[in-house]
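Raw record, unedited: 23S rRNA (Guanosine(2251)-2'-O)-methyltransferase RlmB
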Amino acid sequence: MSANRPPPHHRNQASRGPRRRPDHARREAARAEWKANRPEHAEDTVVLYGWRPVAEAIANSGRSFLRLLVTENAQRRLQEAGLTPAITAEIVRPEQIDRLVGPDAVHQGLYAEVEPLDAPTLESMPQDGVFLVLDQITDPHNVGAIVRTAAAFGVSAIITTARHSPAATGVLAKSASGGLEYVPIVTVRNLAGALQTMSERGVMCIGLDSEGDSVLEGVPMRRPLALVLGAEGKGLRQLTRQRCQALARLDMPGRIKSLNVSNAAAISLYAVARACPPVAE
């Protein structure tokens, strides 16, 4: 090898040129522009985007549409699925929806503004139901995942507070993947008071706590039943705990004894479905 000739690996590095770092600046600029110009909606308007949330809403005859935007590809997909919206859709380009939902949202060519669904009151909820009570769970991704799981297990309603909880729209609705069409969300001002009302109506309220006295499967469960879940890290607030008839933990043999709250909800609902299945009609 010639003394003036660089080793092969040096030649390869030179031919590739300098390594390029990901262009985060452009993405951050797009996020900042969207936040500065994000559209404003009426307080009671629900924003849905993505295939499953919008398709399930179209299939729900009880859902009232205010606006529907679709791309040409999404329009064809709706037609192939046999879904006919109750409102005339606006055919738009994908970037027009990008401006409404943000640069990071996966909208799949579908965007809708709809009215919220009617929700039951605490006094009108079914006497044989299973309910989820959320104590200051603020992450919309977690709450959306809980709604999706609740729909899969036939939960009658989710009870949450007006404050310290995300609105049932946007990111939450996308994470719920259509679950909002099947599980009503009941918003209350005082969670402890709501639990007291439910207990007086015969609902068995079980708080999930990693340090609970009993394993969930060991609690003698019955319907109507409410599972009460607290925020990650903080857990259930003291007054919430006092309103529960039992505090139970999930039996996990591994070294880590706590789970993401949406995963804990799924495992707990599975245990409830085995312990007290719905009565066959």
